[in-house]
Specification:
Layout: E1 2-6, H1 10-21, E2 25-29, H2 33-40, H3 51-60, E3 64-67, H4 70-73, E4 79-82, H5 97-109, E5 114-118, H6 126-141, E6 147-151, H7 161-166, E7 171-175, H8 178-187, H9 189-192, E8 198-201, H10 203-234, H11 238-246, H12 267-280, H13 286-299, H14 301-309, E9 318-322, H15 337-347, E10 351-355, H16 360-367, E11 372-373, E12 386-389, H17 401-407, E13 412-415, H18 422-427, E14 431-433
Parallel strand pairs: 1-2, 1-4, 2-3, 4-5, 5-6, 7-8, 9-10, 9-12, 10-11, 12-13, 13-14
Antiparallel strand pairs: 6-7
Length: about 450
């Protein structure tokens, strides 16, 4: 089989590479010439563990190709996956200009039957717009070529995307065509051999499934953050509460870790888009609106704790920040809590020193020279009045207290991910603030 994947961002590049891993010939297409030239040299534009080796392996095998020419790329293809960006508009709705532009191009250049599948996260009814665009382009050509559209949403976690694609919890495919269903089933056959379920449904339901899944997970996070904040006030320990409810199989222990708020490319954008869809159809999604509000408020929680500790006298203080990406194992800083935290601190006249294992270049692109970038975690603490932990990278989990005592002017830690033992910090003379637990003082 041969497929084309249009868009070499996070979703497109991971999907195309993993399809190639199963023996399918894949051409990844993008309009960015520099990006394509770099990919041909196996210079990967994103950080995803294991992806560079897998790209190189499949390029060497002659299964994975990169091109800027969509017309040539779709020749002899069985399917084309649209995996371009859908950035949020100012009103929260998803911008479909790139998706529909690709659909128009496919209609201009296709020479045989194709299944055209949306891999991008798109609003409900997008497939109908894609179908219309392709049909209009074919009509202008005077062509009666047949094609089908499908929705094939991705469920990839950044930092574990390869494993998620190759060993999925489920594969969701929305289609209204028996022919398309057979082709997609053949395409995904290597994944079915390991017992991973493939769920076929109508296209609208598949589009809704993606938004509903991400919104449910975002809801769990915001709910736990709300509970954590209440725990802190009443004197309960949210870690104990989390264990207590997480053992309930109806709830489970995933996505119930309190913290400084969720970020990334999916949850914020998808929650906004689903809220917008509800408003457009006259069904206001009040729970999701509350989820979004809780999350925005949560990002301001760490700065509030810092202000409280220093008595609102922050001007001239120097604080070290560990972690800039929205979560570990990625350099993605879209909607990252660190951005809001740093913004609030800079407003108060704080000097910020920061370190992240992989997101430093992305941070420089977003923040410029407004903060100081350090080469390692301990350099970020030199002469600092406190430490703020924003991202729970593994290398941050064990502290060298002797080093901290030598470097820091004041022994206080603000932990936005609850990764430290409060009693241990207290024993070493640190004041410790976390999420959903009472502050600990020496």
């Amino acid at each position: 089989m041969k497929i084309a994947v249009v868009g070499t961002g996070y979703v497109g590049l991971v999907s195309g590479t993993c399809f190639a891993e199963t023996g399918i010939t894949v051409i990844c297409v993008d309009i960015d010439q520099e990006k394509i030239d770099n990919l041909k040299k196996v210079i990967i534009p994103i950080y995803e563990p294991g992806l560079d080796n897998m790209v190189k392996s499949n390029v060497d095998k002659g299964l994975l190709f990169f091109s800027t020419n969509l017309e040539e790329s779709i020749v002899d293809c069985d399917a084309v996956f649209i995996a371009v960006g859908t950035p949020p508009d100012e009103d929260g709705s998803a911008d479909l200009q790139y998706v529909l532009s690709v659909a128009d191009e496919i209609g201009k250049y296709m020479q045989d039957y194709l299944v055209i599948a949306t891999k991008s996260t798109v609003p409900i009814k997008t497939a109908e717009k894609v179908r219309q665009k392709v049909s209009e382009a074919l009509k202008k050509r005077g062509s009666d070529l047949e094609f089908d559209v499908a929705s094939n949403p991705e469920f990839l976690k950044e930092g574990a995307a390869i494993n998620d694609f190759l060993k999925p919890d489920r594969i969701v495919i929305g289609t209204d065509s028996v022919r398309a269903e057979k082709l997609m089933k053949r395409l995904y056959k290597p994944f079915l051999l390991n017992g991973h379920p493939i769920v076929f449904m109508d296209i609208t339901s598949a589009e809704m499934t993606k938004y509903a899944a991400n919104s449910m997970l975002a809801t769990k996070i915001s709910f736990m953050n709300d509970i954590a904040n209440l725990c802190e006030v009443v004197g309960a320990d949210v870690n104990m509460v989390r264990r207590g409810i997480g053992s309930d199989t109806r709830i489970g222990n995933k996505f119930i870790y309190p913290g400084a708020g969720y970020g990334g490319s999916c949850f914020p954008k998808d929650v906004k888009a689903l809220i917008k869809t509800g408003d457009e159809y006259g069904r206001s999604l009040e729970i999701l609106k509350a989820v979004e509000l809780v999350n925005e408020n949560q990002k301001a929680l760490i700065p509030a704790k810092v202000k409280a500790y220093f008595g609102n006298e922050l001007k001239g203080k120097k604080l070290g920040i560990w972690g800039l990406s929205f979560k570990p194992q990625t350099d993605d800083m879209r909607e990252a809590p660190s951005l809001r935290i740093i913004e609030e601190l800079l407003k108060e006249g704080v000097e910020v020193r920061a370190y992240d294992p992989v997101a430093m270049e992305e941070a420089k692109r977003r923040l410029g020279d407004s903060i100081e970038y350090c080469n390692d975690k301990y350099e970020a603490l030199i002469d600092c009045d406190g430490l703020i932990v924003v991202t729970e990278w593994s290398e941050f989990r064990i502290l060298n207290f002797k080093v901290l005592e030598k470097l820091m002017k004041e022994k206080v830690i603000f932990d936005g991910r609850n990764i430290y033992d409060a009693e241990e910090l207290q024993e070493f003379g640190f004041t410790y603030y976390s999420i959903g637990r009472q502050p600990v003082k020496p």
